[in-house]
Design brief:
Blueprint (H helix, E strand, L loop, with lengths): L3 E2 L5 H8 L11 H6 L1 H4 L2 E5 L2 E8 L2 E5 L2 E2 L5 H14 L6 E4 L1 H10 L3 E4 L6 E5 H6 L6 H13 L4 E4 L5 H13 L7 H14 L8 E7 L2 E11 L2 E9 L6 H13 L5 E3 L7 H9 L4 E3 L2 E5 L2 H5 L6 E2 L4 E4 L5 H8 L12 H4 L8 H11 L4 E7 L2 E9 L6 E8 L8 H15 L5 E7 L3 H10 L1 E5 L3 E7 L1
Parallel strand pairs: 4-6, 12-13, 20-21
Antiparallel strand pairs: 1-2, 2-3, 3-4, 3-5, 6-15, 7-15, 8-13, 8-14, 9-10, 10-11, 11-12, 16-17, 17-18, 18-19, 19-20, 21-23, 22-23
Helix pairs in contact: 16-17
Amino acid sequence: MEFKPVTKQDAAKLRKYYKNCNYGLCEYSVGTKLMWRPKLHPAWTETAGCLVVRNEDGDRWVFDYPVPGLEGDEDAALTAIESYCLERGKLPVISVVPECKAARLLARYPYVRVSDIRTWRDYVYYREDLQFFSGRRYSGQRNHIKKFRRQWPDASIRTLTAADAPAVEQFWQDYEAEFPKGENAKARNELQLAKKMLKMAGKAWFTAGGMFDGNKLIALSLAEKCGDTLIIHIEKALYSYTGIYPAFVQAFADAFGKDCQWLNREDDAADRGLRTSKLQYGPAKLAPKYCFEPQNELLRHVEAIPVLQTERLTLSALTEADIPAYNALVLDTERNRWWGYDDAAGLGGPVEARSFFDVAQRDFSNRLAVNFAVRLDGKLIGEAVLYNFDCRGGAELGCRIDRAYDGKGYGTEAFAAAANWGLYQVHLSRVIAKCFHENPASYKMLSSCMRKSGEDQRFTYFEKLV
């Protein structure tokens, strides 16, 4: 997958997916991606008929749940995300997962850490509730609207167009003059982002509405319809107009929400005032946004590389005393031409005495791989590597033996021991391996201890299941 940063020019392509998306969360919209791109740096790609968005959360990547098109394959897109991360030495993180997809991910990952942070949750309302404010629980809102209408009976709402740019500019001046959170840096930043976004009013994918007192703009909102939900990205009003907020919320829902079931007024950003206000409007639900952090079996079950004993061999952790023999094994290019990985090029820098040993140590420290030294009478004669843990119960196994010990069955013996350890001690459900078609020795070895599962133009694939 190749990702490109989200820009305004990409909006139409993203809308192809978001316009029919019923996840109901604000993150699955063009507006949120554009408004918060300075913080989250979203990048996007298309794979398996799905939209995949990668965001940045500090020093890690977090991926939105895939948004399928008409013939999209969500499972294939998730697999693509997992492969993309594992190829780069990272564990996949799927974030802002809607409730309707949580069970699917729980079934997908045997080991996963799940969080649902309260301040992330979106406030989602029945459109009819905000449109009519019916019932005793909305008596307060109705009273505020009556007060507003008594004082400003001719105030009306309509679509904002490019011709309203001067009114919008004056609104921002009026709003900032009475802005109650002027000293709050977070609120000031949000206000600047809102002002920037309002300049996109008029784009086909946005709905912009404003309430006017004569020629004066006193409230405005920018929204986006995604599936059966109208997502309110921006909602601002002049506080000096008593009752303006409930009056505007009702008028906007009535004018622009009639073909939607839900109105999403987004999260509260841990702002106490916003939380109080949004709760007073009686949300139908606080929509959870789950963060799934899959973990592999190494993280859960392996604290240290064990010692495995076979009839003739010992498999154990590499030590510093192994460095000369290990380097000779890794740098034997003729022997390793069918290994499938260029160890020296993979370093991304010059080869030094400890380079390969340090990589193996680091990979295990991060629980990305286990490098077993294969020993005969205490001497390192090869290695078996269990790697590419897919967080779904599978891992890949590779084995190489020094050419001086070729043809004696040591590779088969070491391979079987590492595979059985993975399946029965690490609790994997599947160990896979592959060999080049041009490598008959490897084919023979794998055939003796695994089941053939397929082939393509380059490789023959094998697997061993619990």
